[in-house]
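Deviation from plan, reported transparently: calcium ion complex.
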Amino acid sequence: MTRVLVVEDEPQLVRAIAINLHARKYEVDAATNGNTALRLAAAHPPDAVLLDLGLPDMDGIEVMRGLRRWSRAPILVVSARIASDEKVRALDAGADDYITKPFSMDELLARLRVATRRTSSAPSAGGEGTVVTGGFVLDLVTREATRDGHTVRLTPTEWQLLEILVRNTGRLVSQRQLLDEVWGPTHRTHSNYLRVYMAQLRRKLEPDPTHPRHFITAPGMGYRFER
Ligand code: CA
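Because the crystal trials were delayed, the predicted structure below was used instead.
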């Protein structure tokens, strides 16, 4: 059974989430503040965490930092904070996804399914060497890309970007992390680099670059790779 830790200080919302999760055979722990959340997580390690940012005793980001010291369970931030720098801050602190309140229960359940499926199907962070999608195949070891049976030439920078996105398949990677890892911390603000390179990757790999299915933009936040 999948154990979900719900960290939320609105009792009605906790109840609604718990009812829906129980109905789908999840096991649920609930904490209404950060200290309880950290204590509960240590006692019963969760498979996934739904985390509110505005908690009575500490900021949700602090809870996330505490969890990330030892847990790799997916953390889905559920917050009314809509500013994109808040979202980026949460992603940089280790969140896997960000759901803005108010949300529909169906959306929450769908995102939770995606997050837990990813961890159970990915045995290690490095993962496998070959990525197969409907449109193209990537061999990350030999750095060969083929699309419809034809070789696609990618630059070393494009491979670097691809590797980070593939390593985080299904998960939003912040612009800052991508810029940091590929170009270094001094280029952290150069989001235009990313726009250019993502456009190239789409042009080379996407079946229809104007309607990307694999390289998804989350405006103002980052990018996500979907198989
Ligand atoms: Ca709250």
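The CA atoms of residues 45 and 121 lie 19 Å apart. We consider this an acceptable substitute for the interim report.
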